[in-house]
Write a structure and sequence with these properties.
Elements: H1 2-5, H2 8-59, E1 76-79, E2 85-88, E3 92-96, E4 138-141, E5 145-153, E6 156-169, E7 173-182, H3 184-236, H4 251-300, H5 307-331, E8 339-342, H6 343-352, E9 361-365, E10 369-372, H7 374-391, E11 396-403, E12 406-413, H8 447-457, E13 461-466, E14 478-485
Helix pairs in contact: 2-3, 4-5, 5-8, 7-8
Amino acid sequence: MKRVLGSVRARATLAASVVVAVALAAAGAAVLLSLWTNLSEQAGTEAERAARTVATDIAAGESYGHLSLDDDDQPVQVVDGTGRLVAVTEDLERISGTGVDRVQPQAPGAVTDDSGDGDDNSDRDGDDEADDGDSLDVDEIGDASFSDGSATIDGDTADYRFATVPVEVKDKGTLTVHAGAPLTAEQEAVSTALTVMLIGFPLLLAVVALVTWLVTRRALRPVEDIRGEMAAITASEDLTRRVPVPHTHDEVARLARTTNETLAALEQSVERQRRFVADASHELRSPIASLRTQLEVGAAHPELLDVGGAVEDTVRLQRLAADLLLLARLDAGERPADARFDLAALVVEEAGQRAGDRVAVSVTADPVEVSGSRGQLARVLGNLLDNAQRHTRSSVAVTVRRVGEWALLEVADDGAGVPAAERERVFERFVRLDEARARDDGGAGLGLAIARDVAVRHGGSLTVREAPAAAPAATGGALFELRLPVA
């Protein structure tokens, strides 16, 4: 059961069925109530018409014995001001709902009670002395009031809607006429409508459930195709595969396209990791092999041991391991520290440590505070200076200034520069544009990649463009621009 209800189709079908069932129940109840109300009003109108007809006859001077009360479908009672039943429908055996249960007329002066035994000594056609057939004056026929009850006429019992109409007649006082209209037709109509609803509503509910089941199956078929393809991709570990995109413009199509975009990004990430591991292994192989060779030679011939070369290879390994560790931490999403410091002071300090280098570094720095990891930004500056000193001809210039809400650090050299087509590729990992040079002369191709990653982690950017020429006839070198948000 849980597995069935775990299906989106089953839940959608159940929800639609419940909503329709509630709506049908409410609509059915409203229809039945409206039907019964309308039919009851019609019965009340019919009963009021009969009561007013009898009241009019009484007001016109008709004697009680000559009133037209022989309708087998409409029980009528006429009661005087003392509560005495003075006229009643012929063959009336029992009545309730009018407040007068008696079914036999009473003689003048008889004690009124509600026993309904009809034991009086009057004749149904007997008239009191006032009923001499003379015309009487009518003061008023009042408004009708209504009630529900039942009556038995000539052995047939039925429910009735009773109308009560008061009439004032001179010399007789206030008389009350009770007349009823049968509710049999109304009850049959409501019963028929209820039967139709009890038969039709379940059939309609079944149709709604079936249609919902079929529609949701058709709508969710692309989702099942996507799920199946994703399961196949997981089983095969083939990230080149893509899920099918339906030829629609709905949420399922957008889900498929987003899934394919995710798969493409995952494929690129995995491929990048594979290249990273391969390149790192390749970069580590050379210094390790060189160091091993020197140590093996030194072990066999101690007088031939190149201690300086061994130390140099060890330093290369140490730097490469540090670069790889920093990249791994950046890829893991490590957040930089939130410290405030002067970027100009950091540049002056870093440049001062390079006073004895082959190429001097000139600094022009305005104080500007930034926030982040001082160590990581020092690493960025060091990588940029290493790259500039490696490729420049004669000079390296560093400038720090504030531009709006940004701190701008520029490192310029007068070397060959970076071709426009390579200005993004140069920031990729293990990329060297000077492949012809020996590895010992250049780096491993990680410095600029690390610098850009650190800049992005600090909310900034790192780009390269052509540096302004030092002389009109000269060509500019490379100008690296590091932008960081001002603290």
